[in-house]
Every structure is written in structure tokens, then in C-alpha cells.
Design brief:
The complex is a heterodimer of chains A (499) and B (218). With 499 residues, chain A is of the alpha+beta class. Chain A is 47% helix and 11% strand. Chain A is built from 20 helices and eleven strands. Chain A has a six-stranded antiparallel sheet with strand order 1-2-3-4-6-5. In chain A, strands 7-9-10 form a three-stranded antiparallel sheet. A two-stranded antiparallel sheet of chain A has the order 8-11. Chain A is globular and about 85 Å long. The C terminus of chain A is likely disordered. Chain B is mostly helical and 218 residues long. In chain B, helix 4 crosses helix 6. Classes of the chains: A alpha+beta (499), B mainly alpha (218). The interface between A and B is large, with 74 and 70 residues.
Chain lengths: 499, 218
């Protein structure tokens, strides 16, 4: 039996001031305040003394330079800091940078492009969905943010981004169609990719299945390898910069916002460095010189994000995140999510090494390592991926892989018998003659086929499965054909020494 | 690629503009600051002082671009002097130190003759940073007023990012613009009680932020 206290008490009002708005306690207190003028008055008193309310009114009163309209403050931030804190962009800001639209339902026009809507905004620019009226196709337009358009360094960086990004032509890098850098508002025109960013996907669905992680990881690594082969460091690899095309299983790397040619006399040493803190490498966070291995760290953080649903280093302030990146270890992904195979977790660990020398050396190496895990997963060695969309197919592939393993095992067991009894080595002996190396090669070969399958875009699933099966069974016969894990022609490993 | 020129930097109109570069970035500070509270203090410092210095500089007749350079140079000079603070065994709390030297600098800046141009060399900024300013002058008062305003605006901006847009708007309309609560409630389709709650919650958060900051800089 509880004595019901009066609803008019300060404890209830403190719940309203500081408590959780979704709690029952809050809701009950709120409904009382609706009809109780005394509590309304008291609530105001408890939040702050009367003098404070007056001071607050005076201090927040708009000053010269504040935009018209209620509730907005304009506070100067240097480009460097503004880039670290992307601010929301509204339609009127964008419209101010465009000419009047040809159609009333459009937002505006820039050059020959009709602008339909704002897709998003990042550190340096605003991304718009547009339509190329000459070539009759949808495009994505990246416009340099208005507060940066007048800053020389930002314009330089934007122009550099355009040059750098346009130089990389690869199936997993968003193509650049056009660059307009002489306008008051410089912009670049890219292929429009219908779909969502990896950031949005993970926010919506939580951690991805192992198969998805490997697919997106492999494709991103290949796009990165292409950029690295051009001597470019992306510098801003993050989930928001990986686009997932709707309907086809294809990931694209985009926004070489901070990319620069390695041989370029850069802005880096002089200071204007920006990036998303969570995916920055320690050398980047520390302002030290960096190379392609910085991107590998960032991609490791992206893999971690896909595997666990959150970045490896978290803190409530950007600066604190950077500090953790430099000084703290991360919790292994397989400890955060039991579905993550240890082998994948180990690859992520190799990428998240603080010392670049201890990381996997190239994006090509990363591709190989991921392909190996993929093949092991498909062979059922590492357990079944969680929530796999292609659950039945995985089983099918797993089963066929198992069949091949049995065949190889039989051959192995049979070998001593064959060698002991007879030495003709024509039939079974050929297969078994290179047993140890042969097994490794078979694994590598499966890895290759799994890798090829993932890099291929949207083939019909059944045909693909048939190919996989063929590749798997074919691997036994072709042991001697591929003495090295990957055929030369299929590796996309850049040669850094040659750059 | 259409639209791009020959791609050579010296032919690019974008490359002809130059801006002075600060010698270090915010990020490089991370590894040197002793603890997380210091990192937070630095964020607060930049959040309050960038707009403050910019407005003071503009108020002293500086052009937009010059005011921007001034802000960068001050930040660079402060970053430089952080090493001295770190090395000092007797150092007080970072936040208090940081805001003290910055206010010295700002007051000294306001005390300078208006026509005297600030060179681009950072030695002049360093001098502003090191001089002990005279208290109780007009400059000191002007600074205090503007600092206080920026403190409120900084806290308000932080809180704005933590609350929903309708909550923020009803707070603003009823407290800053002093419109009748019943009218705003109708306009936003909220109950009168909800408007009271929203404006009080927002106000309390802003006040708490300011109070906490002031306690730490005393």
C-alpha cells in the first residue's frame, strides 16, 4: 500500500527537466503539468533563476550577421573546424547557389544540370541529385560548400579532389563525368548511384553478415588498390564514402575529398587537414606524413564497423576519438560479435595496427586475405555466416566444397598405398604427387574463384553457383596449372616502388 | 574529361589564391594533451573563441579575409604555447589557463591603436598573448561583454544539436522572442505543458553548460 503523494512536487518536475522523455514517469509528470499552472511556473523557476532567463534572452538576441528567421545563430568557424563538424544544409542555402530552375518542381539549375534535390552534405560540399539535360541521364553533383567557396585552400583542395578522382577509372570507384572549377561555386559531376551508403545500411540493419562484410570489403579493397596504383591516397575511407548500389551487389568507393597525388607538394605539412575522426589512421590523427597504408587502417576500421555495428574507437568528442586512435587498443571484432570468424577478426587487427609497418602491406594483400577467408567460409570451415541472405546457396556451396575435400582426402589417404604398391604415378599419383603444396593451392584456388565471384556483378545466382561448383571441382585438376596462389593476370596489386 | 583545363596547377585559376597556413592542426594536439578533459577544454575553447575573435576583429575594422587570418594566427600561437604549459610542473587546470591567456590576448588586441595593422608574422600575436593587460579598461569591459555573449551562443548551439527542432523552436520563440506560450503551442500543435517543459529543459541545459564551464575556468 503506497501513499499517493501530491502530483505537485519538485521531484516530478526534475524528471521533466532532466529525465528520459520516453519513460512512464516522464509521461505521467508531463500530463499533470498540462493542467497545472502552478507546476508550469515552478518548472520555469527550477530550470533557472529569473535573472538567468533575462540574461539568456539578451545574450541570444540576434546580432548583426545572424540570418533572418527565428532560432538560428550564425557563428564564424574557420574552414578547418567547419570541415570537422559538418553542418546541415537547407534548400534555401543551396538555391542561393543555383540559377532559377527550368521546371517548377526542380530546385534550380547549374550549367546544363537541373537540380532535383539535396542528397546529403559532408565536410567539404553538398551532394545534389541532378539531371543532365543534354545527355539525358541522372547525375550526382558535388558542390563546394558555400562557406568554403571563398576560401582559397578549400577551392584548391576541391579542384585537386576532382583531378584525383577523375584519374581513377575502376568498376568499384564512382566515375567522374565532368568538373567545373571556374564557377563562383565550383562543382563536379559524378555518376548517380541509386542506393545507399554503407553507413546508412549498417545504421538500418546493424552488423552485416560475414559474406556481406567480405564482399563489400573485397570490392572496396579493389577500388582502393586502383587508386593506390595511380599514386593516390584516398585519406577519407569511411562507411559514408562507400556506396552500395541498389539491386546489384556492387560497392563503390567515392569522395576522394581529401585525396591528393602523393608527389604533390601538399597542404598536409602546413596544416589544413580534415577527415572523419572515427576512421582516421593514427598517423593522420597525429598530423604525420602518411601513405597508402593509412587507407588500409581506415578500411580496417570500416570492416570493423560492418562486423560490429560501431567503429573501433569511440568517445563522445572528436578530439577524444583521435586520442584513442593514437593510444588505445581496440576490442577484437570477434569478441564484440561472436558471428565474426576469428580469421576475419585477425585481418582487421592487422589493419588496425598503429605502426604502418605492421599492417598488411597493400590493398592487394588485403584482397587476398579476405578472399581466403571467404573461401574458408564457403567451405564451411569457419562456421555459417549469420543472417546470410544467400543462406541456401552457402549451404550448397559448402556441400560441394565438402565433397571436394572428401575427394582430396581420399586421394591423400590413398597415396601411400599407391606409392608403396606401385610407382607408375599416372592416375591418382598425378594428383597426389604434390600433396602439401597441392592442398594450399586448392585453397588458394577456391579463394580465387570466390573472389572472382564476388567481384563479378549480379550474375544469375544459379549460374553463379554452378560456376562456383565448377571452379571448386576444377581446382583439384588444375593444381599444377597455378603454382602460385593467384594467377598474375587477376591480381590488382599496385607496384608502389614503380610510382 | 570535359570542363577540366589542362590540369596543370599553374594554369588553374583556383591555385592562384594563397592563404597563410597555420603551422599545426587541432589533431596534432591530441597526443600532447594530458587527458580527455583537456581535449574537451580545447574543443570548448575553439568553439567559443573562433567566432569571438572573428567578431572582435571585424569590429575593429578588419576585412573578412584579414579577420579569418587573425583567427588562424591566434589559434596557432595558442597551440604553440601549450607546450610550455605541458612542461610546467606547477601548471593549473588546462581550461583555466587556456581561457586566461586567450582573454589576455583578446584584451591586448582591443587595446591596440585601431589603425595599427597587424603584420602576418606571429611574433606580434605572441606579444599580444604574453602581455599582461590592464584591467578595468573599456577594452576589458568590451571583451567581457562579447565573451559572455559568445559563451551563451556556444552553449545554445551545442544544446540545439541535442534537442529536436520543435523543442528548440518553442524554446526560442517563447524565451528569446517572448511570444505567448499558448500561441506558440497552437502553432506547433503542442500542449501548453509540453511547451513549458521544452523551454525549461533547453534552458536548464544551456545554463548547466555555462555554469560547468565557468566553474572550470575560475
Amino acid at each position: 500500500m503506497t501513499v499517493r503523494s501530491s502530483p505537485c512536487n519538485d521531484d516530478n518536475l526534475y524528471v521533466l527537466l532532466e529525465g528520459d522523455e520516453d519513460s512512464d514517469l516522464f509521461r505521467r509528470a508531463a500530463s499533470h503539468v498540462d493542467s497545472c499552472p502552478d507546476c508550469q511556473r515552478r518548472l520555469t523557476e527550477l530550470s533557472a533563476e529569473a535573472d538567468y532567463w533575462v540574461a539568456q534572452r539578451d545574450m541570444l538576441h540576434p546580432v548583426e550577421g545572424d540570418p533572418p528567421g527565428s532560432g538560428t545563430l550564425s557563428r564564424y568557424r574557420s574552414p578547418e573546424c567547419a570541415m570537422l563538424r559538418p553542418t546541415a544544409v537547407d534548400e534555401s542555402t543551396v538555391q542561393a547557389m543555383l540559377s532559377a530552375p527550368s521546371h517548377p518542381e526542380m530546385l534550380g539549375r547549374i550549367g546544363r544540370y537541373e537540380i532535383e534535390r539535396i542528397i546529403g552534405s559532408g565536410g567539404m560540399g553538398i551532394v545534389l541529385k541532378g539531371f543532365d539535360s543534354e545527355l539525358n541521364r541522372p547525375v550526382a553533383i558535388k558542390l563546394l560548400a558555400p562557406h568554403l567557396a571563398r576560401v582559397g585552400a578549400a577551392r584548391q583542395r576541391f579542384a585537386r579532389e576532382a583531378r584525383a578522382a577523375a584519374a581513377v577509372v575502376h568498376e568499384h570507384v564512382v566515375p567522374i563525368h565532368n568538373v567545373e572549377s571556374e564557377q563562383a561555386s565550383p562543382f563536379l559531376v559524378m555518376q548517380f548511384i541509386p542506393g545507399e551508403s554503407l553507413q546508412a545500411r549498417v545504421e538500418r540493419e546493424g552488423p552485416l553478415s560475414v559474406r556481406e562484410i567480405l564482399r563489400i570489403g573485397l570490392q572496396s579493397a579493389s577500388g582502393l588498390a586502383a587508386a593506390h596504383a595511380q599514386g593516390l591516397v584516398h585519406r577519407d575511407v569511411k562507411p559514408g564514402n562507400i556506396l552500395l548500389e541498389k539491386g546489384v551487389e556492387r560497392a563503390y568507393l567515392t569522395d576522394f575529398g581529401l585525396a591528393r597525388a602523393s608527389d604533390d607538394a601538399s597542404l598536409t605539412h602546413t596544416g589544413v587537414v580534415a577527415g572523419t575522426p572515427h576512421y582516421m589512421s593514427p598517423e593522420q590523427a597525429d598530423g604525420r606524413p602518411l601513405d597508402h597504408r593509412s587507407d588500409l587502417f581506415s578500411l580496417g576500421a570500416v570492416l570493423y564497423f560492418m562486423a560490429t555495428g560501431h567503429p573501433p574507437f569511440r568517445a563522445d568528442r572528436p578530439m577524444a576519438v583521435l586520442k584513442r586512435i593514437c593510444h588505445d587498443g581496440h576490442r577484437p571484432a570477434c569478441q564484440c560479435n561472436a558471428e565474426v570468424p576469428e580469421a576475419l577478426s585477425a585481418i582487421i587487427d592487422r589493419l588496425l595496427e598503429k605502426d604502418p609497418n605492421r599492417r598488411l602491406a597493400t590493398a592487394g594483400d588485403l584482397q587476398q586475405a579476405l578472399a581466403q577467408v571467404l573461401s574458408d567460409v564457403q567451405r564451411g570451415k569457419l562456421g555459417r555466416p549469420r543472417r546470410s541472405v544467400r543462406f541456401t546457396r552457402s549451404i550448397w556451396i559448402g556441400a560441394s566444397a565438402a565433397a571436394v575435400i572428401v575427394l582430396v582426402a581420399i586421394a591423400l589417404i590413398a597415396r601411400p598405398w599407391f606409392t608403396n604398391s606401385r610407382n607408375d604415378g599416372d592416375s591418382a599419383g598425378t594428383t597426389a604427387g604434390t600433396t602439401d603444396g597441392g592442398l594450399t593451392d586448392a585453397r588458394a584456388d577456391d579463394a580465387q574463384s570466390a573472389f572472382d565471384e564476388l567481384m563479378a556483378v549480379d550474375p544469375s545466382p544459379t549460374a553463379q553457383a554452378a560456376e562456383e561448383l565448377e571452379a571448386l571441382s576444377g581446382s583439384v585438376e588444375s593444381l599444377e596449372t597455378y603454382p602460385y596462389p593467384f594467377p598474375e593476370s587477376n591480381t590488382k596489386e599496385p607496384n608502389y616502388e614503380a610510382q | 574529361m570535359a570542363g577540366r583545363k589542362d590540369g596543370r596547377p599553374d594554369h588553374d585559376p583556383l591555385m592562384t589564391q594563397t592563404v597563410p597556413q597555420p603551422p599545426e592542426t587541432r589533431e596534432t594536439l591530441i597526443s600532447r594533451l594530458p587527458n580527455a578533459a583537456d581535449v574537451e577544454a580545447w574543443d570548448a575553447f575553439v568553439g567559443i573563441y573562433e567566432p569571438l575573435l572573428f567578431r572582435l576583429a571585424r569590429g575593429r575594422g578588419m576585412q573578412q579575409a584579414d579577420a579569418e587570418d587573425f583567427v588562424q594566427e591566434v589559434l596557432a600561437a595558442v597551440i604553440k604555447s601549450i607546450d610550455r604549459w605541458v612542461a610546467d610542473d606547477d601548471r593549473g587546470p588546462f581550461r583555466a589557463w587556456l581561457f586566461r591567456i586567450a582573454s589576455n590576448l583578446a584584451v591586448n588586441f582591443l587595446t591596440r591603436p585601431r589603425h595599427q595593422r597587424l603584420g602576418s608574422g606571429d611574433s606580434q600575436i605572441a606579444r599580444l598573448l604574453e602581455q599582461q593587460p590592464a584591467r578595468k579598461t573599456d577594452s576589458a569591459e568590451l571583451f567581457l561583454k562579447e565573451y559572455r555573449r559568445e559563451l551563451f551562443r556556444w552553449a545554445a548551439e551545442c544544446v540545439r544539436n541535442q534537442v529536436s527542432e520543435p523543442q528548440w523552436m518553442v524554446f526560442w520563440l517563447t524565451s528569446v522572442e517572448q511570444r505567448p506560450i499558448a500561441e506558440v503551442a497552437r502553432e506547433y500543435g503542442m500542449s501548453v505543458g509540453s511547451v513549458y517543459i521544452a523551454r525549461s529543459r533547453v534552458t536548464k541545459r544551456i545554463r548547466d553548460m555555462i555554469r560547468q564551464h565557468e566553474e572550470q575556468t575560475q
